[in-house]
Amino acid sequence: MRGPAPLLIPAGLIVAALTGWPLLQLVIMSFQEFGRAQIFGAEPEFVALDNYARVLADPVFWGVLTRSIAFAGVNVALTMVLGVGIAVMMTKLGRVMTVAVSLSLLLAWAMPPISATTIWGWIFEARSGLANYVLSLIPGVDMIGHSWLYEPLSFFFVATIIVTWMGVPFAAFTTYAALSQVPEEVLEAAALDGASPWQRFRLVTFPFIRGVVLVVLVLQIIWDMRVFTQIYTLQTIGGLRSETNVVGTYIYEVATAGGDQGAAGAISVILVAIMLVISGYYVLATVKEEEL
After folding, report:
1. Which of 45, 58, 121, 222 gives 33 a disulfide partner, CB atoms 3.0 to 4.6 angstroms apart?
2. Domain carrying residue 255
């Protein structure tokens, strides 16, 4: 065997051991009746596609999946717009301000999700939260005692702030790194030809960073579709689980509260299939771009 392929074998074996085996066990479980009895030692029973049939026939699952897609769509759009915008802004700032913005982004990115969610939960707390206090300073507005987490719409408004706040740093850093590789002489030539700043970005800069932006976009979709910690933490603070579950928390609820590991495995496999479709689209788009 020649070429770089042998060098990939050790890494491939490690990835297969760490992710392939658990994924295989998950797939096997999704075809079994695996409940509380099996957790305590009973032999799991093979039920073929029964778990998938039950999940796909359950309107609750489709409601949760639709909610997750909508939630991820909003978060991804906001994260990408803000991330790319901040990255472009950083290319225009001086060294001191660039370092300051980078440190701010790094602090937000480094904070553990559960800690960040708890802090934001305090900010939107009904009685003594900073958000209600500031809004109540507006004449004619009384927000003291208003619960942001009780209503599903305002619950996901808070969740969107948290998820976007934690996702923007990665998008900004990655895009900024790509922008730093755009040749200055090309931008100068476009400016001399009379191109406006927006035209230079759309017609010159963006084609150079399209591949990086596509990678970040796909990763953000995957991360936001399987979000768990932020939603679960907000639910424990005051959200209604039945109206605020996304796929991640729904799998946890089915597996723990419902005690149905088989159905939870089926939902997980369906989510993995969705992620594979998204990843496959990225791979095909990358291959087509390289062929051009």
Report:
1. 45
2. 58-291
CB within 8 A of 205, min separation 6: which ones?
179, 182, 187
How many residues make up the chain in this entry?
292
Residue with token string 């009780």: 150
Q: State the distance between the two ends of the chain, measured CA to CA, in whole angstroms.
A: 30
Q: Which helix (H) or strand (E) holds 32?
A: strand 32-33
The answer to whether residue 1 sits within a structural domain is no
Residue 43 lies in a domain: no
What is the C-alpha separation between 5 and 146, in angstroms, rounded? 60
Which residue, among 231, 225, 230, has the nearest Cα to 278 in the 3D structure? Answer: 225
Would the pTM count as exceeding 0.70?
A: yes
Per the DSSP assignment, residues forming a β-bridge with 192 are: none
CA distances from 29 to 25, 33, 105, 262 (A): 6, 8, 40, 6
CATH number of the CATH domain containing 95 = 1.10.3720.10
Contact indicator for 6, 28 with CB cutoff of 8 Å: no
Determine, yes or no, domain membership for 156. yes
Tens digit of each residue's pLDDT (9 = 90 or more) over 48-84: 888 899 999 989 999 999 999 999 999 999 999 999 9
Question: Rounded distance, CA 143 to CA 155, Å?
Answer: 15
